[in-house]
C-alpha cells in the first residue's frame, strides 16, 4: 500500500465498520475518519435530525460531498456510512483514492448488533430481520462490486477481522 492510500470500510449498518476502523488505525498507524461523526459535527445535527428535517436525499448529498473532500485530505482509515455505495460517484471516488474493504454479515448477525440502537433512521420502525435481509439483498451487489477485499465477519472477533484486513492490504501496491 502506498502512503497516500486510504482504506475505506463499507458494509451494512452494524457490520462492525467503526469498531474495526478504530483497531486498524492502531495497527496501521493511520488517522481515523468516521463519516457519520464528521457529518454530525459539520451539520450540528444528529443523523436522525438530518433525515427528519431535510430527508434522505439531502443526507446523501452531504455524504457524497464528504467522500469527495476526504479524497483531498491526508490518507486515513475511513469508516463509511452503510449507504455510501448507493451513489456510483462515491464508489468511483473511493476506488480512485484507496482500497475498499467490504465487511459482510448475515441479517441475523446484523439484527443482534443493531437491535437496541435508535440512531439509524432507516431502521427506526423497521427493526426486524426481514427488513434487514430485504435491504441487504438490494444493496449486496453494490457492496460486492465496489469491494477490493471482502471479509465475512460472522463469528469472528474484531481483532481477527482487523488482522485479516491488514494481511489482505499487504498485497495491495497502489
Ligand atoms: C445508513 C447507515 C448509517 C448512516 C445513515 C444511513 C444506511 O451509517 O449513514 O443512518 O443507509 O445504511 P452506519 O452504517 O455507520 O450505521
What do these coordinates show?
The chain has 174 residues and is α/β, with parallel strands linked by helices. It has 8 helices and 5 strands. The protein has helices at 17-28, 35-43, 47-54, 56-70, 88-97, 107-114, 129-146, 158-169, and strands at 6-10, 32-34, 77-79, 98-104, 149-152. It has a 5-stranded parallel beta sheet, with helices on both faces. α2 (35-43) packs across α4. The longest helix is centred in the last third of the chain and has 18 residues, at 129-146. It is globular. The structure holds shikimate-3-phosphate. Residues 13, 17, 36, 47, 81-83, 120-122 line the site of shikimate-3-phosphate (S3P). The site of shikimate-3-phosphate has 10 residues, from loops.
Regions with pLDDT < 50 over 5+ consecutive residues? none
Main β sheet profile? 5 strands, parallel
Count up the helices: 8
Share of β-strand residues? 5-15%
Number of strands: 5
List the ions, cofactors and other small molecules found in this model. shikimate-3-phosphate
Order of helices and strands: EHEHHHEHEHHEH
Helix content: 40-55%
Going by helix content, strand content and strand pairing, the class is: alpha/beta
Q: What Rg do the Cα atoms give? A: 15 Å
N-C termini distance: 5 Å
The average pLDDT is 96
Q: Identify the overall geometry.
A: globular
Oligomer: single chain
Strand order of the largest sheet: 2-3-1-4-5
Amino acid at each position: 500500500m502506498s502512503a497516500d492510500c486510504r482504506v475505506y470500510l463499507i458494509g451494512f449498518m452494524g457490520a462492525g465498520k467503526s469498531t474495526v476502523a478504530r483497531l486498524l488505525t492502531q495497527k496501521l498507524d493511520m488517522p481515523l475518519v468516521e463519516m457519520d461523526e464528521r457529518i454530525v459535527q459539520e451539520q450540528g445535527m444528529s443523523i436522525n435530525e438530518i433525515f427528519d428535517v431535510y430527508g434522505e436525499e439531502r443526507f446523501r448529498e452531504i455524504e457524497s460531498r464528504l467522500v469527495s473532500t476526504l479524497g483531498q485530505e491526508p490518507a486515513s482509515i475511513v469508516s463509511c456510512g452503510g449507504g455510501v455505495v448507493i451513489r456510483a460517484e462515491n464508489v468511483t471516488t473511493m476506488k480512485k483514492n484507496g482500497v475498499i474493504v467490504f465487511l459482510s454479515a448475515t441479517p441475523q448477525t446484523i439484527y443482534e448488533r443493531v437491535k437496541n440502537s435508535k440512531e439509524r433512521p432507516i431502521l427506526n420502525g423497521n427493526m426486524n430481520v426481514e427488513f434487514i435481509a430485504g435491504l441487504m439483498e438490494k444493496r449486496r451487489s453494490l457492496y460486492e462490486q465496489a469491494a477490493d477485499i471482502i471479509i465475512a465477519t460472522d463469528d469472528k472477533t474484531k481483532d481477527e477481522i482487523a488482522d485479516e484486513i491488514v494481511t489482505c492490504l499487504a498485497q495491495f501496491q497502489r
